[in-house]
Amino acid sequence: MKPACSPCEQVDLVDLNSLRVHASASYLIDVHSVDDLNHALAWAEEHNVPLQVLGGGSNLVFVDHFPGLVLHMAMKGRQLEPLDDDQAMLVLKAGENWHEAVLFAARAGYRGIENLALIPGTAGAAPVQNIGAYGVELCDTLESLTALDRSSGQLVTLTAADCCFGYRDSRFKHEPGRYIIVEIRLRLSRSAPFRLGYGDLQARLPSDDAQLTPLAVAQAVMAVRQEKLPDPSVLPNAGSFFKNPVVSQVEYERLQADFPGLVSYPVEQGVKLAAGWLIDQAGWKGFRNERVGVHDRQALVLINHSGGSGRDILALAREIRASVQEKFGVALEMEPGIVGTET
Questions:
Q1: Catalytically annotated residues
Q2: Which of 44, 159, 163, 208 is 20 to 30 Å from 169 by CA-CA measure?
């Protein structure tokens, strides 16, 4: 069985990843429907090649040539389905641009995902990472999703509980390759309380609560992000490259005694440390070598300023991790997935 349109061969992926590394793939096909997906999977099985699912390419590091088929998820479609006078379900196909979906809901007056404005990527990739920002995570609104379960070949519906969400974590990270998400459904509300616990947001919002709308909050989030984070189309990057580490209360007290300026936040599992602060204090903020570096306004962001490779990015990440480990005794975990052999 052949896919509806034959795969492109020997494809440069530079325009399909936000770090703009010049990796390549043996084959690539744009997937516009479930039928396309089934045909592509059958083609890959027939030709005995590995698969890599690709959305917006904003959370992946391509290290070298991928000797298989890249499934570029291009399914489009978004709609708000009213549930009652207050709530609606936002239904998004996997290839929908996430930021545009946030604005679509906010302009319609629905709350719940406005704090997640300007996060790059697609709707289908959002549950994998359980994207989050400014006190909100995707799991807060995700009602369910539809995915193709490659173990059975069937479409399945998974609830939020089925997805086993955690901080920047989900079932999809622990069972890589099993599920291909084709649609997500988010329960939004016109009256849910806004989450405005961050001073940077409050400073950009109207003082009159009557003027406080989901769109106003989304625009404030955008202003904060644009001030601190580089635009990937101008300065290639993959957003936050490291997770904020969570340590025990005992470990936090040790660190706080040694480093009084330590930036931290209490969480259910212990204390979350600001990885950007750790990296900054280790001397990396604004660092550049001839190809890659660290953003000068947000140390969490690694940048590809002069055509670096995936290996260049990962080599810098390893240096940063080793430096933070030596100075603070804290292990940093990378957020992006790695496609290829790291060493």
A1: 168, 240, 335
A2: 44
